[in-house]
Amino acid sequence: MVRFLLNRPIAVSMTFVALIVFSVIVFRTLPISLLPPIDVPQIVVKVSYENASPDAIEQNVLRPIREGLVTLNGLEDMESKAGSEVGTIRLTFDYGTKMELAYIDVNEKIDRLTNSLPTDLSRPQVIRINTNDIPVVRVQVTPRPGIDHAEVTLLTENVIKKRLEQLEGVSLVDINGKKSNVITVQTDKDALRALNLTEDHVINAIKAGNSELPGISVEDGQFRYYLRLATRVDHPDDIKRLPVRSDDGQVVNLGRVAQVQYDTDKVMGYHLYQGEEGLVVTVHKQAAAKMNELTPKIYEAVELFKSDYPQVDFDITQDQSMVLNAGISNLQTSLLFGGIFAFGVLFIFMGNYRTPLIIGISLPSSLIISFLVFWFFDISINVISLSGLALGLGMLIDNAIIVLDNITRKRREGLPLFEACVGGVNEVMSALISSVLTTLAVFVPLVFLSGISGALFFDQAVSVAAILGVSLLVAFILLPMLYWLFFKNKELNASEEDSKLYLSVLKGYKYLYGKIFLHRKRNLALLFLLIPLLLAVSQILEVEGLPPIEKMDTLVAVDWQEPISATQNKLRVQEMLAALDGGFEKAESDVGVSQFLLFEGENSLQQATLYLLFSDQEEKNRQAGRLSDWVSENYPKAMLRLEDAPNAFDQLFSSDAPFFEARWKDLKSKRPIPSYRMDEYLMTFPSQTWERGPGLQQESSVVFKLDLEKLALYGIEPNQLQDKLKKLFGNFNITDIKRFGEVTPILLKEDQVNFEQLIQGQKLRGKDGVEYGLHHFIQFDYEDQYKFITADKSGVYQSVAFPAGEGISAQSQIRDWGYDRQLNIDFAGQYFRDRETIQQLVGILFIAILLLYFILAAQFESFVQPLIVIFTLPLGIGGAFLVLWLTGTSLNVMSAIGLVVMLGIMVNDAILKIDTINRLRVKYSEKLSLSKTQILDKAMYEAGEIRLKPILMTSITTMLALMPVVFSAGLGADLQRPLVFSVIGGLTIGTFTALYFVPLAYWFLTPKK
């Protein structure tokens, strides 16, 4: 095939040019995202029910919804959590479930359940989770002093939001921190009493003045007109002019007995930027959009907003495109330095400029053509797929060096240029194909990991397979053709092929080779002894998910653990920020209940989240300690959590699930166990290192008890008292003013005073017309109640959580403890998921090793020689572990990817070394009349000399190309540094292994007779 193609250089050249042109066109159409568009198999149902307790939300809302959703197809798990005024149900499906259909199914079932839910409950919100739901940027909108917040809310909703949605590539614009205007009516109790009026008279007058006549029409000859009442109200002044009629017929204007004005609606949550109230607009991209093109458009739009709306301040925070740009920058750096160092190393070792130039053409060509595979498999350009390309670059350089070196060697043996190109490629073709297949055999099985990890590895596996497949195509077709074109008019000059530096290295290699082979058994035993010693280093390495990135931002989550209002929560957050004395560059806070459509976390009035950006790491650590001290000193009940601000990866993989959790249910009552009894139970709990789960956390509440006997004695109906309480403490909506799609509620307002004073000042009218104080019919008490009620598929449960490594050994004692108290005990947590993942990884690793063995057995036509390659792997892994330990680097996702890169290159070198020995043995056995032992020694010696140059050049080029990352700073360098240490450590040992361990092991495993 190579001979056929080399005879048609113009056709081959034009074909590659066409592929590159088409690849460039395809590249421009590929979506660019931070992460692959993965459907996370979760759906969240959110419920908002004003003035409802956790118990009321659980019994009246969440339980019926859970029972209705339990039959969903593919439902794996269901968790619900009821809090004050809010509740959530998180549905987890089997991975592979079509989430579009599941989302429709959930909505249909909730629509059917609507009639069984409370009538005053707004429809539950269904949120589907996707990696594209992570916002690209957050736009801060802050009203300037003296500007009405409600007006800015209208501007943001009606103008800013619309203009951002019009940008190409934007899928959704979400807003938090909105405020709206309402009309409040506050009655004058003394004036009402003097005029023999009640609040009901005022309410009825407003309802009558805002009444509609829907569907009524009148005829006028041949015409028909729809009837509209002209008495509708549109403004507080209209309401003040409404007539209020008493039972004895006296009529007064409503303005005489009530104060009517515009006011701000009850606020459940706030957004703060730099400590000031404002709004935040999150921008989400479409799946097919290019993030690197969308982000500049958003920045440009915000600059226009600043000039168009000077009454508002704008700013952009938490730009997620920085991670993507870091990935692209790393790939560019790898290509640039890879090319420069490849050129330098080849020039030093070979002494001519043509060979490096050929590699300089082949590298970008391979990379560009790889994007055709992206287009075919519908893969976006994202951090995961880019890391796959970076992973394959080392192998790409490796293949190019091997092919060019082999062609040069064939020319040195006296073959003509054309025959050298053909023979040089054919000789290493099967070995290179095997090395690529073995690399894929190690990596591709990871696609079969369950969950999001497997989905992420799919993008990486496709990108690795793409660049390795294309690298073979380039190595077998383009490289020999370029070599033929560059050298067809150039005679072979030995001085240009081997530099003086290389000749001195070759001399040193031969000397050490002779020394090692003088004591073969001892040296092989020492190398085998190194394997467990180096692998044992893994036991002292810290294991992490992602490498620790030096972040200048912090996320502060605070739960005040007190039943405070959103306004009080806001004031406390502002106090926290003031305590930092401006030691931060940017600060934004989401306080209380979030208004985001896509918010799938907890909503609570007493919780707040702060994002703080600092100038440097030292300032960040100093202010974090200062903040913790201030909170513990001023609000000792508060629970504070400080952590690095999560990037997109953290948000995707983070889980609120505890490491290990013991759950129990009371199967008799199917309700939470009362707190007084639960506290007794927990005193004898068989472990000391636990903390209360959400279902055991308590908060103070006020309990009203009605005196029904007194109510009956004075002729007052219980529902009359309940209506009074709703008007006092609820958000009593009299009616709504509707015009042109805008709704303005008219609310009854009471004095914002202590509830005890409010009760003391209110009266109820009995059947005899006499008014009685409200406090005569109500008794109240303070009680500790459960803050949340948690439940799963089978019902309500309570739990305790354990830190990592605790509680697992006490499972049998915990079961006995529950059995003695007639509790059904179950265990859950991240521990079980991690154990399942480890079991999958062990199985996948076993399959990968089997695939590796089968491929090598087919290549070498031997069942023994593949073991040599397999035994080289732990030496390289051990070398990587050693460098990771010496540099203080953890074992994480990036260092694991580095291990795969290094193993691919190591396997390549070992395969080619063994393949060369096999070919020389066959060649010498046919031409020389020597013993098998002599032929074996001669073949191994010459194979080492032949393969020395490509092995050294590949290892040195790869290590030098990655070295700049070690000395770089920034997010990209922090991510890639563990990968670099893995590759450098593995290749340092791996190069020595390929040069000396492979021939030693080969000598012992090959029969001599």
Automatic annotation (TrEMBL):
UniProt GO cellular component terms: plasma membrane
Alphabetical list of Gene3D superfamilies matching this protein? Multidrug efflux transporter AcrB pore domain, Multidrug efflux transporter AcrB pore domain like, Multidrug efflux transporter AcrB TolC docking domain, DN and DC subdomains, Multidrug efflux transporter AcrB transmembrane domain
Pfam families in UniProt = ACR_tran
User: What species is given as this protein's source?
Assistant: Litoribacter ruber
Q: What's in the keyword line of the UniProt record?
A: Membrane, Transmembrane, Transmembrane helix
- What are the GO MF terms of this UniProt record? xenobiotic transmembrane transporter activity
Record-annotated membrane-spanning stretches: 12-30, 331-350, 357-377, 383-404, 436-458, 464-486, 524-541, 841-860, 867-887, 893-912, 951-973, 979-1005
Protein name (database record): Efflux RND transporter permease subunit
The record's section on PANTHER family has: PTHR32063, SWARMING MOTILITY PROTEIN SWRC
Q: InterPro entries from the entry? A: AcrB_DN_DC_subdom, Acrflvin-R
